[in-house]
């Protein structure tokens, strides 16, 4: 059985078209491989060129972080210096005007001494510590002087009668002056004896006299 000549020609044309298409596809594939290879080379070159920039950027980022940490630490130290100056001003004014504020300043100084004692790496820490300790010593001297002045200003002799007034009623003398005694030689009566026993059973409350009035 023979093949029709037209059919053979059609098959030959189709085969030729397929070969041509395969060649074009192979050419396109080779071109794409070449282009991708070129991209890979260019990306490698770009990465090599960017490497120093990346290193510098990383160094800049680390330097920025270090600067931030240093600024925060410096802010804490400056805050302590400000507190020290405020406390010094209150200490130099003395406790007479505002005793409560003065005591707060003393507590501030103690806190500052603890802070700089634990951060002696700073060059000025020793100087600040010495200054704060001197201020503490001065503050104690001012408190002692204030106490002496209060004693001098408000202390006064107390009359003996006032001291007897501080005793509870059961312990106060019933008759005569407080300094007098019974020299008659008579034995105390049973009535006085029972009264003394009742007095001894009472709760004794002693009210001390106000030698120094409370400070306003």
TrEMBL record:
Coiled coil: none annotated. One of its GO terms (cellular component) is exocyst. Residues 187-201 have a biased composition (Polar residues). Residues 169-204 are annotated as: Disordered. Gene3D superfamilies: Exocyst complex component Exo70 (1.20.1280.170). GO terms for biological process: exocytosis. It comes from the Eukaryota. InterPro entries: Cullin_repeat-like_dom_sf (IPR016159), Exo70 (IPR004140). This is Putative exocyst complex component EXO70A1-like isoform X2. The lineage of its organism: Eukaryota, Viridiplantae, Streptophyta, Embryophyta, Tracheophyta.
